[in-house]
From TrEMBL:
Name the UniProt record assigns to this protein: Putative Zn-ribbon-containing RNA-binding protein
InterPro entries the record matches: DciA-like (IPR007922)
Domain of life (superkingdom): Bacteria
């Protein structure tokens, strides 16, 4: 008696884990929430150590990223480059994940 048969019921076509995960997020309609959390988690990588060290808090509500910055000059610089920051986020995490940026 053979331990394994060639007529296995296991699926032959496989998909990369990333694709399956993306499909799962879309199926449960939580892709946007996951992307928002990813933006918050990766803020320091996206903006650099200087900005990250002066960031007191981050939150997302209704596709608006709220960033509390402790440095006045840095706050002003980010406000002036708001569209650049939003473009960076859109390029890395997809368009529509974050629609606006509010600096507090």
């Amino acid at each position: 008696m053979k331990k394994y048969s060639h007529d296995s019921t296991r699926k032959r076509n496989t998909s990369p884990l990333k694709e399956v995960f993306e499909e799962l997020l879309e199926a449960y309609r939580i892709k946007d929430k996951f992307s928002e959390k990813t933006v918050i988690q990766e803020w320091s990588q996206l903006m650099g150590k200087t900005v990250a060290s002066r960031t007191q808090s981050l939150s997302v509500r209704q596709k608006i990223l709220y960033v509390k910055i402790s440095s006045g000059p840095l706050k002003k610089e980010i406000m002036m480059n708001k569209t650049k920051v939003l473009t960076l986020i859109a390029e890395k995490y997809g368009k529509g994940v974050i629609n606006d940026l509010v600096i507090l």
